[in-house]
Amino acid sequence: MKFSIVTPSYNSEKYISDTIESIKAQSGQDVEHIVVDGASDDDTVNIVNKYDGITLISEPDNGQSDAINKGLMKASGDVVAWQNADDIYFPGCFDRVAEFLKSNNDVKMVYGYYQRIDPQGKKLADVHPPSYKKWRFKYGRFYPVQPSVFFRKEVFEELGYLDETLHYCMDIDLYCRIVLKYKIARIPHLLGAFRVHDESKTQNKENYNEVKEELFNVLNRYFTYSSIGKILFEIFQARARLGSYVKDEIL
User: Fold this and answer.
1) What CATH number should be reported for the domain holding residue 34?
2) 116 in a structural domain
3) Does residue 250 register a pLDDT over 90?
């Protein structure tokens, strides 16, 4: 089974080596790694060029969604994912995903457990997302975190790519389209790590209200909210924000 991993990057010299190494460490599967760089002016491109076997695109783009779409359109694997340039996969991750997908032909998207790590890579918490339920997803109770998410390639062939008008929640928009048409499933193992740091646009506290507003608009686009639904959304977002400070959080 061939995996295509797309990494969007811009001035990612601080962490991108960790991301690349975590992909290089995967064994047992055919792996294609595509790095789409937005014309970084730091050392990102030089770092990427030190590694063999990576397809590098470095040119100005229109943001993260544009960069990811460029990579997705070049992807040739049976299984496709994007991994941001500050996150990592754990050893054996691809083998677990391949084994699960081979045994569950009706599943088009999988997600798993993940770890939250600090800027130095130290563990903050293991997070165990619940199994998919429509009501949880509809009200923002949970949505899969990118280091643990993989898709069959036909998802993009049938549904198209990321909405490039979205700045924060392009992944949630894609998930919405997927869950309304396909079966998704959870793999109950740690698959990757999500790095917590203020340089991340979705984690920067100054962006919190913008992120929440875009998330609400995306979910409301597919699951029109009633007045009660809006209240539930606000409750679950408040809980998630509080939970992000809790060590060993189990969602």
Assistant:
1) 3.90.550.10
2) yes
3) no
Rounded to 10 degrees, what is the CA torsion of 242, 248, 145, 197? 70
Does residue 248 lie in a domain region?
Answer: no
Rounded-to-integer distance, Cα 194 and Cα 86, Å:
8
Contact 95, 196 (CB under 8 A): no
Structural domain for 202, as ranges: 2-243
The yes-or-no verdict on residue 70 having pLDDT over 60 is yes
pLDDT digits (tens, 9 = 90+) for 193-225: 999 976 655 555 677 889 999 999 999 999 988
Overall number of domains in the chain: 1
N-terminal to C-terminal alpha carbon distance within the chain: 31
Q: Assess if residue 91 is contained within a domain.
A: yes
Angle at 133 between CA 128 and CA 135, to 5 degrees: 115
> Distance (Å, rounded) from C-alpha 14 to C-alpha 246?
26
